[in-house]
């Protein structure tokens, strides 16, 4: 009976963490249509807006760095409750900021809450995977993509008809309601063993002698650099270098993200069938091929199709790498997840500006070709993600 109750709790926890992925994506997606409003409402330049967005990223990376320490002390369920409930108010705080200094503080807090929530929900998904002895990470990220699509698609219409403050209020209410219900059903990790110095993993960044997690983080970094490049520069590439109009250029990321979202819902079944390492290898090759064709494409429609193929490959790479980071031997899931997510998201936060600088002196085509090389490196390193393979729930590492 205890085993049955434990499994039923894990199944409820699986859908609870999926709901929080959905809410996190919804909050992040709802921020996108608010960006032009910030520009006009605060009467600032694009450069100043860029600095505010950079503060969002700085807040996210800061929280991600500390989140592993907090999860090791308090568990992913408790930390996810904190960041989730606080994070649901982040967009509203930004929408209420009346001037640049307060907007800067609000952006840092918003980014921190979203970043901390991200690490905690991924760590909790790893806990569910261990309890169920099967993958759920890809579909969890699928719910994030679904939430992001809903937040972005509905936000512009809502702001246009009802104003930015009403939009932020409704987003906050919906996100808070979903998170408040979901956190009741989250599952907790088994208690780690005690040592003479306390619970294992209580140090903020206790990774001495564990280089493997950094290599997994490097793979996440290379993967997410590619994802960020498509997000920020694919439309401009099609418009400036392949001569299409803005409406068609926007289809590049739309095709990439739509295919990625769909594939994430199939990813867990594929990973359970063929294994994490094999799935990662094939995905990396497919993504590299898509990026290479996009960089060499002579027409916009071929480039759009190639970006869709790239999304097909990248879709399940990040979930597998996050699972590998959260299952490092001798390390708490929160600590490993903190390292991998921080390194990975740095690719999305830092790489776009570097790519923009290079593109000013070159063109986007060669950059996308070079990025395909990074994905080939991930293919070659795929064996390092073996910790994402599943076996029955193991005892905590000594």
Plain-language structure description:
It is found in: Membrane. It comes from Mesorhizobium escarrei. Residues 212-398 form the Major facilitator superfamily (MFS) profile domain. This is Fucose permease. This protein is mostly helical and 398 residues long. 79% of the residues lie in helices and 1% in strands. Strands 1-2 form a two-stranded antiparallel sheet. The protein is globular, with a radius of gyration of 20 Å. The relative contact order is 0.15.
Task: Kindly list the characteristics that best describe this protein.
16 helices; 398 residues; mainly alpha; transmembrane helix; globular; MFS_Transporter; two-stranded antiparallel ribbon; single chain
Could you provide a short overview of the structure?
The chain has 398 residues and is an all-alpha fold. It is 79% helix and 1% strand.
């Amino acid at each position: 009976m205890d085993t049955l109750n434990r499994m039923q709790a894990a199944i409820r926890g699986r859908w609870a963490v999926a709901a929080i992925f959905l809410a996190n994506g919804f909050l992040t997606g709802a921020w996108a249509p608010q960006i032009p409003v910030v520009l006009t409402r605060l009467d600032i330049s694009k450069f100043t807006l860029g600095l505010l967005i950079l503060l969002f990223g700085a807040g996210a990376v800061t929280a991600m760095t500390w989140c592993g320490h907090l999860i090791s002390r308090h568990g992913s369920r408790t930390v996810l409750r904190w960041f989730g409930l606080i994070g649901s108010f982040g967009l509203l705080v930004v929408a209420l900021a009346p001037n640049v200094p307060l907007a800067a503080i609000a952006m840092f807090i918003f980014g921190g809450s979203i970043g901390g929530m991200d690490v905690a929900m991924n760590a909790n998904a790893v806990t569910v995977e261990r309890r169920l002895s099967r993958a759920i990470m890809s579909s969890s990220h699928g719910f994030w993509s679904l939430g992001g699509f809903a937040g972005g698609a509905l936000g512009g219409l809502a702001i246009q008809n009802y104003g930015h403050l009403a939009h932020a209020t409704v987003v906050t209410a919906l996100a808070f309601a979903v998170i408040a219900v979901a956190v009741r059903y989250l599952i907790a990790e088994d208690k780690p063993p005690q040592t003479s110095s306390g619970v294992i993993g209580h140090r903020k960044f206790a990774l001495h002698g564990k280089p493997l997690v950094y290599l997994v983080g490097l793979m996440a970094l290379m993967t997410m650099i590619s994802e960020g490049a498509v997000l920020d520069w694919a439309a401009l590439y099609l418009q400036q270098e392949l001569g299409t109009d803005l409406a068609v250029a926007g289809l590049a990321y739309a095709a990439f993200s739509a295919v990625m979202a769909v594939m994430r819902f199939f990813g867990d079944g594929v990973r359970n069938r063929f294994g994490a390492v094999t799935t990662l290898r094939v995905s990396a090759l497919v993504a590299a091929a898509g990026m290479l064709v996009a960089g060499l494409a002579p027409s916009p429609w071929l480039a759009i199709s190639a970006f869709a193929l790239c999304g097909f490959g990248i879709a399940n790479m990040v979930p597998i790498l996050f699972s590998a980071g959260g299952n490092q031997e001798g390390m708490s899931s929160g600590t490993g997840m903190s390292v991998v997510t921080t390194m990975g998201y740095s690719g999305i936060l830092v790489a776009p500006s570097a790519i923009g600088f290079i593109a000013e002196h070159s063109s986007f085509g060669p950059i996308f070709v070079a990025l395909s090389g990074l994905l080939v490196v991930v293919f070659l390193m795929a064996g390092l993600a073996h910790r994402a393979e599943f076996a029955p729930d193991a005892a905590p590492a000594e």
